[in-house]
Specification:
Blueprint (H helix, E strand, L loop, with lengths): L13 H5 L7 H5 L7 H9 L2 E7 L5 E7 L6 E4 L2 E5 L8 H8 L2 E7 L6 E11 L2 H4 L12 E5 L2 E5 L2 H6 L16 H9 L4 H14 L3
Antiparallel strand pairs: 1-2, 1-5, 3-4, 4-7, 5-6, 6-7, 6-8
Helix pairs in contact: 7-8
């Protein structure tokens, strides 16, 4: 790692950061709510996918995708979200982070809509059957879930999605133009052949989604 203490291109503080930008537009601050209003609740009900950001006790960051049928995240009230944990690889990175640093950030996406919804707040891990049983899918009740208390909720403009043409069907990447996950894991780990990895992943996708 190089010493950047004398590099004039490195931004040092917030004043330095904001020097190159104009003032914050009033609406950008005023749109931040401390609860989920009717628009946010409707958006969450349409959303099949979110990204969960968390931080470890040492400040290291992690972002994890979460997805299921639209409305898989419950909103018992205007200040609370419950995110079920579906079966994964058992790394539990996000949950381990939350045990020591409970603040999380969420971004909800809805296919076909350029705007996104951001939610920030403290989170806790729950095993409460009253919360988790209604979130069962394919007859599988989640072992745990994440309860997020809404501190901030805001809609984010669609510029990033528009620039990326994320929902444009003409921009879909043909699957055979990028290596399969089986090939990647076999090359990265050297612990399994590509053929074995492909079979294992296909089986996981078929029988271990829930």
């Amino acid at each position: 790692m190089t010493d950047d203490t004398l590099d004039p291109a490195i931004v040092r503080d917030e004043a330095d950061l904001r020097a190159g930008f104009g003032p914050v537009r009033p609406m950008a601050d005023e749109k931040v709510l401390d609860h989920l209003d009717a628009y946010a609740l409707a958006f969450i009900a349409l959303s099949p996918f979110l990204v969960l950001a968390s931080a470890g006790a040492d400040g290291t960051m992690d972002a994890s995708p979460r997805g299921d049928a639209p409305g898989f995240v419950a909103a018992p009230d205007a200040h609370t979200l419950v995110i079920p944990d579906r079966r994964g690889n058992n790394r539990l990175d996000s949950f381990a982070n939350i045990l020591t640093h409970p603040e999380v950030g969420l971004i909800f996406l809805v296919p076909g809509i350029a705007e996104t919804l951001r939610v920030n707040g403290p989170a806790a891990i729950t095993r409460d059957p009253a919360l988790l049983t209604p979130l069962a899918a394919q007859n599988a009740v989640p072992t745990i879930g994440l309860v997020v208390r809404v501190r901030e909720a805001m809609f984010h403009c669609g510029k990033a999605v528009i620039r990326s043409r994320l929902w444009d069907p003409e921009r879909l990447v043909a699957r055979d133009t990028f290596p399969s996950l089986g090939r990647i894991l076999a090359d990265q780990t050297k612990a399994i052949t590509p053929e074995e990895a492909e079979v294992s992943i296909a089986e996981a996708y078929r029988t271990r989604l829930y």
